[in-house]
């Protein structure tokens, strides 16, 4: 039974910023990002082997890290989270999690090494989420979740195993924690698997499909106002965390390979990365709605205002599609006029 009486949530498309390249404010495979205490964003610029700190408007502030495998160096940075003025960076290339000082990027600790048999080993890890002193890491190739203590960077527990059965994971990418539950986005199984923080399997949300509430290669999952927001290659979905009831599925204009997502502190904006080669950029979405309600009845929202924003977003998307169709038709006509007759 759906348990979201009195609750409502949608996101609307606002704008994009950023471009592909090697310069400041340019990206190559910007897989994940997180919000910082000062309101800025930190992006894992994977192929450029660095982190970039930018404003929420997309202006470059500074970069952190350099290519390599030494302390403080980065190879294939992917998942990223911030806690207590410290950055926790998951490196797919170095198969580890590094703890860096937010201010200057100084190395403060690390965990993990390449492997699949020994305790705490990782193989191409992707997402990371910090909750109550613990880092939950999506261990991509090994198909599991590895948990570390963020103070000591020591291994705490591992749960899950590679596969497609209940409690198994196939290419886990994104990870989020809400209350006592862990939500894992599985690219390979096209679903969200839910566990307790101790690692006990609870349920599955979604499954492969195009209809609302189902997924194709979900990459990231975050909690926004108590709701789940899930990214797929070309769209985002908002759904209830209990039974996976879809509130909204929104196709983003021009999206190629959406990947990571994060919210601002006020939970009024969501930022989503697009890693498509040659078209790397960041989408900005506005959040409309209220906190997820477990059934007792939540604070009322202005449905008319929310509907108006949703209609505005749909109009923007329609306008963009019509523009692209016109451009394609113009190119086709131009091509015909220059051909042999």
UniProtKB/TrEMBL annotation:
Keywords: Coiled coil, Repeat. Gene3D superfamilies: TolB, C-terminal domain. One of its GO terms (biological process) is protein polyubiquitination. It comes from the Eukaryota. GO terms for molecular function: ubiquitin protein ligase activity. Transmembrane segments: none annotated. It holds the Pfam family NHL. NHL repeats lie at residues 14-57, 61-103, 156-198. Residues 303-330 form a coiled coil. InterPro entries: 6-blade_b-propeller_TolB-like (IPR011042), NHL_repeat (IPR001258), TRIM-NHL_E3_ligases (IPR050952). The keyword Acetylation does not apply. PANTHER family: E3 UBIQUITIN-PROTEIN LIGASE NHLRC1-RELATED, SMP-30_GLUCONOLACTONASE_LRE-LIKE REGION DOMAIN-CONTAINING PROTEIN. This is NHL repeat containing protein. It comes from Chrysochromulina tobinii.
């Amino acid at each position: 039974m759906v348990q979201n009486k009195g609750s409502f949530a949608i996101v609307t498309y606002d704008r994009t910023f950023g471009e592909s390249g090697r310069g400041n404010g340019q990206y190559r495979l910007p897989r994940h990002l997180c919000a910082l205490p000062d309101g800025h964003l930190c992006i894992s610029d994977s192929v450029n082997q660095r982190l970039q700190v930018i404003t929420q408007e997309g202006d470059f502030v500074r970069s952190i890290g350099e290519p390599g495998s030494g302390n403080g160096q980065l190879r294939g940075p992917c998942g990223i989270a911030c806690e207590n003025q410290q950055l926790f960076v998951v490196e797919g290339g170095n198969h580890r999690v590094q703890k860096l000082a937010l201010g200057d990027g100084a190395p403060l600790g690390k965990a993990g090494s390449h492997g699949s048999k020994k305790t705490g080993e990782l193989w191409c890890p992707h997402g990371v989420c910090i909750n109550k002193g613990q880092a939950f890491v999506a261990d991509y190739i090994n198909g599991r979740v590895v948990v570390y203590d963020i103070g000591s960077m020591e291994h705490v527990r591992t749960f899950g195993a590679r596969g497609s059965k209940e409690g198994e994971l196939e290419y886990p990418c994104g990870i989020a924690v809400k209350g006592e539950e862990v939500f894992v986005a599985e690219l390979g199984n096209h679903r969200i698997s839910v566990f307790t923080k101790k690692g006990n399997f609870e349920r599955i949300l979604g499954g492969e499909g195009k209809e609302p509430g189902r997924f194709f290669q979900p990459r990231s999952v975050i909690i926004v106002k108590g709701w789940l927001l899930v990214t797929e290659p070309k769209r985002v979905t908002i759904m209830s965390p209990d039974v996976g009831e879809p509130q909204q599925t929104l196709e983003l204009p021009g999206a190629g390979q959406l990947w990571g997502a994060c919210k601002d502190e006020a939970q009024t904006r969501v930022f989503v990365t697009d890693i498509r080669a040659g078209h790397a950029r960041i989408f900005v979405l506005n959040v409309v709605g209220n906190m997820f309600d477990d059934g007792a009845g939540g604070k009322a929202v202005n449905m008319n205002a929310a509907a108006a924003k949703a209609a505005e977003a749909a109009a923007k998307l329609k306008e963009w599609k019509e523009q692209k169709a016109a451009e394609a038709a113009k190119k086709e006509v131009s091509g015909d006029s220059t051909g042999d007759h």
